[in-house]
């Protein structure tokens, strides 16, 4: 085996070791409590080896988040916003509900990213460039629309998750779509008339 091949194999081995150790640590504690010093000590590598792979823990976190999101975002990239909004929501819910606890913790963690961008900002910027300027809207207006959509989707999903997914996903997707597309008006709250499809299963609680 050539010296270059040995170096390549060593690089891959260390890359996998760094990621494995990071996943073990984030399963045990909060991201903000993890340090490069502790990670390298646990992985039994030196700091210089870590910096050959990543400039910071934030870069490692960001790359893991993007890799986790890639499959579903590739599916979403084939859709058209807002025509396929329910399909986008469906992809997102199915993806998030399929993750294990460590992956969910990685995606929900926030690092000190450049310009105070959150992980979701970085992921959206990386994958949703085709939506930077929606038809009939300028870039600022488009950004507002996409921010509203992504924030609503994230908040609604988290609420569903922390409540043990008590509504079946087949009902949750159209419910989330109704809320995101029509807001309070879609709940019937403003008119005093609750739509039949709004949270049908929730009436049987406790």
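Sequence proposed for the structure above (206 residues):
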């Amino acid at each position: 085996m050539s010296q270059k091949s040995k170096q390549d194999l060593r690089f891959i081995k260390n890359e996998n070791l760094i990621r494995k150790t990071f996943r073990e640590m984030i399963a045990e504690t909060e991201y903000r409590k993890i340090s490069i010093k502790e990670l390298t000590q646990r992985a039994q590598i030196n700091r210089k080896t870590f910096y050959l792979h990543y400039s910071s823990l934030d870069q490692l976190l960001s790359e893991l988040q993007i890799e986790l999101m890639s499959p579903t975002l590739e599916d979403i990239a084939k859709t058209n916003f807002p025509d396929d909004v329910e399909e986008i929501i469906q992809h997102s819910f199915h993806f998030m509900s399929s993750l294990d606890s460590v992956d969910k913790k990685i995606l929900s963690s926030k690092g000190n990213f450049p310009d105070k961008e959150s992980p979701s900002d970085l992921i959206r910027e990386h994958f949703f460039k085709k939506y930077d300027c929606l038809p009939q809207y300028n870039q600022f207006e488009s950004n507002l629309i996409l921010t509203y959509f992504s924030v609503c989707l994230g908040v609604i999903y988290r609420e569903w998750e922390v409540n043990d997914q008590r509504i079946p996903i087949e009902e949750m997707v159209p419910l989330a779509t109704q809320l995101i597309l029509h807001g309070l008006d879609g709940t019937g709250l403003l008119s005093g008339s609750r739509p039949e499809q709004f949270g049908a299963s929730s009436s049987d609680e406790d």
